[in-house]
Each structure stands twice: as C-alpha cells, then as structure tokens.
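Before a computer can learn anything about folding, someone has to put a protein's shape into writing. The three-dimensional part falls to structure tokens, numbers that each stand for a local backbone shape. The protein below has been through that process, and both of its lines are reproduced in full.
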Amino acid sequence: MKSFPDAMGIRVDGARVAVVAARFNAEVVEPLVDKALATLDAAGVSDDHRPVFRVPGAYELPLAAKWLAEQGRCDGIVALGAVIRGETPHFDFVCNEAARGLNDVALTHGLPVGFGVITADSDAQAMARAGGAVGNKGEEAALAVIEMVDLSRRLHRCLPQ
C-alpha cells in the first residue's frame, strides 16, 4: 500500500477551506467528508471556516469549486466524490472532466484544490479508498490542501511586496 505524505504536523489556523462533496454514491462519499473534516479540524481549521457544500455528482464539482474560488474567500477547496465504472464509457467522461475542471480552477485562481474523487472499477475498490484497506481519499485531499495553504503562506512571507 502506498502511503500519502503525512502533513498532520502542519497547522493552518485561521484558514478557510471549503469542502465540496457529491451526493451521488453517498455511501462512499460520506466517509470521505467525515475524514476530510476531521483532518481539517486537526490542522486548526475551525468549524465555521470549513463549510460543506453539496452538488449532485462528481461532474458538478468543478463548477461549484469555480464559484467558491471566484468569491475570493477560501484559502483552499477539498473536492470529494466517487465515480464507479459501469457498462458504458460514461465513467471516462465524468472522471476526465472532473479532474480537468478542478485542475483548471486551481491554476486559474491560484488556489489549492484537493482532488478527493475516487475513480474505481467496483464498489469494493471504492469502499477500500473510502476508509478501507487503501486509506481515505478525503483525508488525502484535505492533507494536500493543508500542505499547499501552508506553502502559500510561507511563500508570501518570504517574497518582497
């Protein structure tokens, strides 16, 4: 099993990190939300600075993230969803567009966006990535945002105005 870098020693007190979560595949997504929120809490992100917004599915995550980024009030966004392969190519389109769209938001707005979208071939694979044997992608996405918020703060302190 690959290990995600542990950023839990990093504190980002006062940071504002929104969580955007898909309602589709809720049995997989809810453990991601729970672990992401616990991870943000452990890093010093207070309850009132980590709102959760729901969207229908993974395909809608980029638009919600874009709207949040445009508000200019978030230090980072954690995007959570689950896409499980079916019998049609729909899986490929949803996964690719969710990833592309979230990356576009991050690069366009200079904002950390944690990619916590599980892409799995089966329900069992998805559950293994939602807190099972493979870990929790919600935690990993939150840790990535925490680390990038911290890096952004450090870069801004050392660069001249």
In short: The radius of gyration is 15 Å. The chain has a mean pLDDT of 93. The first strand starts at residue 17 and ends at 22. DSSP finds five helices and six strands in the chain.
